[in-house]
Amino acid sequence: MEKRNWTKEEIVEYRKEHGAFFYCNKEDSNFLVPKPFGIGWTINWANPLSWIFVSVITGFLIVRVFYKIRLMNQEKKY
């Protein structure tokens, strides 16, 4: 099974067969694919880059929250 970039028509056909809520196609090497409804793009969850992208964003948000909590605790001391 070789990965390749799928066309929009192939993606639409894949969604008709497998459902449109999450796009998880191991044969498709696209990182971003068009949304089935509305405007914009969504992530191909079978692509390893999508998991790295989500992990980096989540890690950034967690670090930011802990940093804000730490600053708030330091302000209470003074």
What is the secondary structure topology, with strand pairs?
Elements: H1 8-18, E1 32-34, E2 41-43, H2 48-77
Antiparallel strand pairs: 1-2
Key structural traits:
mainly alpha, 78 residues
Task: Characterise the protein shown here.
With 78 residues, this protein is mostly helical. It has one domain (8-77). It is 53% helix and 8% strand. It is built from two helices and two strands; from the N terminus they run αββα. The longest helix has 30 residues, at 48-77. The N and C termini lie far apart (62 Å). The mean pLDDT is 90.
Span between termini: 62 Å
What overall form do the CA principal axes indicate?
Answer: elongated
The gyration radius over C-alpha positions equals 19 Å
State mean pLDDT (0 to 100 scale). Answer: 90
Helix content: 40-55%
> What is the number of E strands?
2
Q: Please, how many domains?
A: 1
Biggest sheet, open or closed, and with what strands and sense?
Answer: 2 strands, antiparallel
**Helix count, per DSSP?**
2
Q: Structural class, from helix and strand content? A: mainly alpha
Give a quick precis of the structure.
This protein has helices spanning 8-18, 48-77; strands at residues 32-34, 41-43. The protein has 78 residues and is mostly helical. The chain has one domain.
